[in-house]
Amino acid sequence: MRLPRLATLVAAGALLALPGQLHAHGGQYRGPGDTVPPNPGGGGGRTGGPGGPTTPGPGGPTTPTPGGPTTPGPNTPPPSAPTGGPASGRGPTTGGPGGVAQGDDLSQWQFWWEFNKDPFLNLKHALHEGAVVSGSDDFDLGRGKRKDAVSTLAPSISDKKNATEALKWGLDDKDSNRDIISSCMVALAKIGLDKDILPLFKAHLPDKDQEQSETAAVAMGIANLPEAVPDLLELAKDSQVGRKIVENDRVPFRTRSFACYGLGLIAYSSKDNKLKAKIYEAMHALVADESMSNRDIKIAALNAIRLLRPNTESEEGKTLHQKAVEFLSAYMMKKKGNQQIQSHAVTALAALVGRGDRFDPKGTYKAMILEILKDRRKRTWMDQSAVLALGEMATPEDEEISKALQEYFKRGRDEQAKNFCGIALGQIGGAKNRDFLVTTLRKKRTKSISKPWLALGIAVEDYNMRQKDPNYAGSAAAREAILREFKSMRNNLFAAGLAIAMGILRYQDAGPDILDRLLRYKNQDQPAGYFAVALGLMNYKEAKNDINDIVEGALRRDILLTQGSIALGLLGDKTIGGKLIERMKSRANVVAVQSALAQAIGFIGDKNSVRPLIEMLHDKSYRDIPRAFAAVALGLVCDKEEFPWNSKIAVGANYRANVETLTGAGTGILDIL
Fold first, then answer.
1. What are the structural domain ranges in the chain?
2. Which end of the chain is less crowded, N or C, counting CB atoms within 10 A of the terminal residue's CB?
3. Where are the alpha helices (DSSP H) in 223-338?
4. Cα–Cα distances in Å, from 521 out to 410, 496, 530, 653?
5. What is the DSSP letter of 389?
């Protein structure tokens, strides 16, 4: 469902005006704003060519391909095909000047935060576990739950059954339009209670509506249905069987890409190494196939390999793991290859090898990635992925790597990779890296745009240490340094990044200053929203009433409404869910606000919202879009998983090496709630 892809990110304080709405399967986008990295070509398939909608890039309203059109490979849609995605020719879109803030600086911190925030927020845990909220002594973010906590707002099995039946009704109802159908499919997959839903999804694979077909493919993965693997494999391969499934003379490249992501999600959740091996062999074949140049499919296949998680306790799992690692390491080092695609092999390798020396006892793979970072002949995508990968793999003992990242931050050629270094050094941790981050943050000559990255790196290091030792006290000097920069920072968006860092640090002494800035700049929706979230992260209870007032007044301010509601959820406000439901019932809501309300309700996950959402979905006196949003919210509230399903793909991804089925124009895998 292409519901509005709300911009939670905009350039340096400029608000996004949305005269039209661009929709995304199953819900509103939760990440960066409507400007995404241009799809830069370089030998791939036509992933944004004539006939489809365009993604506004920094230079104008279209997604440019600097090298000009590429020659389609045998598995690439011809130029006459509608290759831009299923929104082509359907409904209003955001696609030109005025629709988005042009010239967004994609190296800003907000993009990384929105793709990687879920483990830090862990919002449902804060609300479902009684009074245990983010920032309290008993809260263990992202790991386990307090044994003596009593669940108060988590939906029951009965709630989930009722939601499932309502969504199945919405999917089967002859009056349901494409928005309701797509939303119901994704929501049913998230809940995952009905193990017999595969036929319901499969029935939509041959749908002439491309959106519904590809949504059905990925829904099988979201639902973790191993029985869907045979069909998804045929779709991904574009086999004769796959073509018969979609009742077409070819499987569209978008459906193939989404089938790959679906297979990756199934592999991630499965414990069956034989199943994982079958998926790996198919993905390996797609990536290695030099006759097929489509970047979307290859990048989707690499991300599916990234999600494999073989069980290495068995010989079978060890063999699979080694095969995948050897393939990825060889592929990323190919001298003649599409470096945009290869950059995803780098992050996939990092995910499989992990930190330490268990799977890299001689440091071979880290050395290879370090070589990529030092090679100035490589494209900047490779630099970015190398930095992200080293942050995921290295330890404080890898001093050469830490020094290389520090040096790159100071003198590197790519601004995005430089900023990623701040996060990577925090992930690696250690006193020397923390001291570098703090010292560099304090320097006057350090660019203001880089300071949120440094602060977030400090916060990530502190967060990781707390996961190992809940009593970890952290660095007082680091916290004070960030607060000092926050007080002197004139740019409110950069200050908001510093505030988020202090929220992760649980630095409540900064609460009064952040609250003061929130109240002074509450009319600047984006920074104000982040100030509120920061206060929620640090559990600064004194801000609850003020944030409540701001949310109450945000009648048509979608960004502030969503972020403020998240903040109240983090602060343990047990009334916010009911208030949001009452507002969602209003028939006067514009689409963007309806979307924000659905997202906020879903993030909070209040069981008391299930019944009214079901009633909205059933009530045909509402328009289709509000009913579809009710389905979206049901899926979010009753989700079987603690974190959003696509956070598995988003966290640690190089979103700058973008293609349309990854993220962009509201039609990528990361654009679905």
1. 1-66+80-95+660-673
2. C
3. 229-237, 240-246, 253-269, 273-288, 295-306, 315-332
4. 33, 11, 11, 32
5. H
Which amino acid is it at 139? F
Distances in whole angstroms, Cα of residue 588 to Cα of each of 215, 396, 557, 599, 622: 29, 55, 14, 18, 11
Q: What is the pLDDT of residue 26?
A: 56
pLDDT reported for residue 606? 84
Report the pLDDT value the prediction gives residue 27, as an integer from 0 to 100.
52
Is residue 256 within 8 Å of residue 238, measured between CB atoms? yes
pLDDT digits over 443-474, tens only? 999 999 999 999 999 999 999 999 999 999 99
Tell me if 282 sits within 8 A of 233, measured CB to CB. Answer: yes
Residue spans of the chain under pLDDT 70: 1-106, 126-152, 664-665
pLDDT of 629: 93
CA 600 to chain centre: 16
Q: How far apart are CA 324 and CA 220, in angstroms?
A: 24
Please state whether beta strands 23-24 and 3-4 pair in parallel, antiparallel, or not at all (unpaired): antiparallel
Give the separation between CA 531 and CA 522, rounded to whole angstroms.
9
Are the C-beta atoms of residues 283 and 297 closer than 8 Å to each other? no
Report the 10 Å Cβ neighbour count for 619: 12
- Please choose, from the candidates 624, 547, 612, the residue with its C-alpha nearest in 3D space to the C-alpha of residue 577: 612
Tokens of 34: 């409507």
Distances from the Cα of 328 to the Cαs of 295, 342, 560, in angstroms? 16, 9, 42
